[in-house]
Protein: Methylthioribose-1-phosphate isomerase
Amino acid sequence: MTPDIAPIAWTGDSLRLIDQTLLPARLEYRDVADVDDLVDAIKRLVVRGAPALGVAGALGVVVALRQADRESWDATTRDAAIARIREARPTAVNLAAGVDRVRPLVDEGADAVLAEALAFLDEDVRGNRAIGRHGAAWLTARTGDRPLRLLTHCNAGALATAGWGTALGVVRELHARDRVETVYADETRPLLQGSRLTAWELEQMGVPYYVQPDGAAAGTILGGHVDAAIVGADRVAANGDTANKVGTLAVALACAAAGIPFLVAAPWSTVDLATPDGARIPIEQRAPAEILANGGTPVAPPGARAHNPAFDVTPARLVTALITETGVLEPARGRTPAEEAAEKRER
Ligand code: MRU
Structure:
């Protein structure tokens, strides 16, 4: 399956990433063939978004195995390198899950790991298309056939996945059905994934959109300009609490106050049944310079301290629907991913 935008590919020798730090000014690819480069790319958000991190983690193990061969690493050095990839960012469970998925094959060699990692990539794209269909059907059942005004936060598009997107995958599907009037894309401070990446994707799709400051979202929602908000997730706890880009919680609270649906679109690989609730989700704290400076120029007084969490947690009671590749569950009505998983195992 060929996705429209392929942020992650395997070239035969190395991992090829769209450098998301350069968008929308330049669409450039970066080939990654060693572990230091990959860890740097993950930390600097060259590759980002939970599902994309999962696939990059799985293919990253191939990078580590090839480098181990080239540089004659022993097993301890190899395993330490794989662990560095796994831990490069803490919040999106997909990164660790992607590495863990292929790790049992490490002793079989790079080709076996590569085959599994590419299967994972393909599954992600197929899963996202299913998320798009389930999300579009759920919204249509509740809102009828009129074109919708949607709001999204951060970037949960093709760039954040192996292709197609989760929250933007639903928008893509609705747009194909002529059901999108407009999308409000929160700019997503401080790294601007909304104004740089989501706007770029919406532009390519031909979907009408506004970029708005994050602080405008509550007013746009309570002002009656939005029919539903839809976002991605970095980790969904067993009880349905959901971590996503900082600012998502404010969107969810505004949706609850306005009585409109707040939807989370994410593959099952983002559900972490080992994390019971949102309080146990590790939240990445990022460098103070991201908010104390703007484009390299300091904007706060010298000595200002920074509080710069990259994510926040939306309690399950505010999540109207969690859309996965297998269907929709409604955490706000008390249905948890843990219950859903238990029933799936029985089926
Ligand atoms: O810091 P980022 O850009 O990796 O954060 C990404 C998000 O918060 C996304 O909304 C989330 O990973 C879902 S992507 C389908």
Summary: The two ends are 29 Å apart (CA to CA). Residues 45, 48-51, 92, 154, 156, 160-161, 166, 193, 231-234, 244-245, 310 surround MRU (CB under 6 Å). The chain is about 40% helix and 15% strand.
